[in-house]
Amino acid sequence: MNIAFVPIDNRPVCYTLPEQICAADESINLFMPEREWLGDLTKYADTDKIFEWLKDLPSADAVILPLDTVAYGGLISSRRCDNTFEQIKNKIEQLKDILREKQAQIYAFSSIMRISNNNINEEEKEYWSDWGKKIFEYSYQTHKNGCPPNCDIPDDILADYLTTRKRNFEMNKIYLNWGSFFDTLVFSKDDCAEYGFNVKEARELEKLGGFVKTGADEIPLTLLARSIKGELKVAPVFLESEYKNLISNYEDVSIEKSVKGQLELAGCRICEPDEADILLYVNNFKGHQGEIVMKVQTEPFDGLWVKPDKPYMIADVRYANGADNAFVEKLFETDFADDNFYGYCAWNTSANSLGSLICAAKVKYFAKDYNDMAFKKLQVIRFLDDWAYQANVRQQLQSPDEYEIKKKMKPFEDRIFEKFGVKYNINYKFPWHRLFEVEVCI
Question: What does the pLDDT average to over 123-146?
Fold first, then answer.
């Protein structure tokens, strides 16, 4: 199967993770643009080169396409880019002509512009550092009350923000009007509150027939899973079954609905455990989801972990942005890494973990030319990133120091290598020069 995959940006979870997942099936030919052409925290993607790459591609069965990348230069750029509606529209029409010639199934998603409730401008326009929380409140109250509140946001800043929102929303309506051009079109929303312009836009798109889903970074992988033919029967098993109605951080639906939404979008069928091809164990939270880096604690896993006798995968979502140490310790007391093991994931939001986990499991299950060493490599990287780094070593670092992290990760490497029966030479990088993401380089 030939799959053309355009990443959101050059982060490891967007660029190298798809490669690592697809490597488990050597019958998949994954084509991606050069990493240097993609955007990062401050740089926009080189869309001209990506368009040329798409033109020159051999025939593809599927194209996985984040529309923010090709329209604005990236997900972050979609909130920063100053191009006009007409400029973006003309660019996208060119893209449509290129893709039409490929005669491939197009699996696309476009974001509904988020509204962060903070004064951090790392991923927003410069003025967010002064006016972010007030813009959020303006959005919240306008939607809730049906009219804008009195505010002290400067007119030029508010006008720029509203113009950018309107441009992106009008582009989303254009994509919706393309109809059957897309095999699948998803509108994503993240950092959701009860009210806000993003919530209002989501409802309007749904009224027009659009499909809206909570999440963002994992959606290309969920669409990749959807492009893999074959119905996978999956039974969710919540380790805290009484609390599956609770809502994860950064999301606006219950963890149960998040799980079901990810499975359905990935092309899986939800079933009971006795008829399942794979069991999906969800280490969900009681009360509220914790977040180690924000020093938000929650009750850790304190139950029994018994390795099932049929295929299974694990979404560890008790905490956002990292693993539940108590659960991993229980897991490591067993020989879990056998032929029935279809993956573990615990990175960032619940949706992020679920989408990438399900994609890897589906690739492995339907692999025509399975590569077990590639799958083990993928899992080693996930445990090193999600457990060793995010839940432990990250808290011990003051700055992105590649020498310091290598020393602190060594004890975790040894334990993980023993479980998977492998040994690698590993280095670590901080591609965006911040602690939020690390790249595990084998």
Answer: 96
* 350 touches 255 (CB < 8 A): yes
pLDDT digits (tens, 9 = 90+) for 375-414: 999 999 999 999 999 999 999 999 999 999 999 999 999 9
For residue 138, the SS3 value is helix
Q: How far, in Å, CA of 285 to CA of 93, rounded?
A: 45
Distances (CA, A) of 165 to 45, 145, 322, 323: 20, 19, 32, 35
| Contact in structure between 225 and 267 (CB atoms under 8 Å) | yes
Other Cβ atoms less than 10 A from the Cβ of 4: the count is 24
Q: Which helix (H) or strand (E) holds 46?
A: none
The answer to whether 293 touches 395, Cβ cutoff 8 Å, is: yes
Q: Please list, in sequence order, all residues whose beta carbon lies within 8 angstroms of the beta carbon of residue 129, skipping any fewer than 6 positions away.
A: 119, 120, 121
Q: Which of 42-51, 121-130, 189-198 has the lowest mean pLDDT?
A: 189-198
Amino acid at the residue 48: D
| Separation of alpha carbons 324 and 19, rounded Å | 26
Both ends of the chain: CA-CA distance in Å? 26
pLDDT tens, position by position, 9-35: 999 999 999 999 999 999 999 999 999
Please report the DSSP string for 57-80 in residue order: ----SEEEEEHHHHHHSSTTHHHH
Q: Please state, in angstroms and rounded to a whole number, the distance separating the CA atoms of residues 383 and 378.
A: 9
Distance CA 321, CA 334 (A): 24
Find out whether 326 and 304 touch, Cβ atoms under 8 Å: no
* Dihedral-angle region of residue 191 (phi above 0 means left; psi in -120 to 50 means alpha; beta otherwise): left
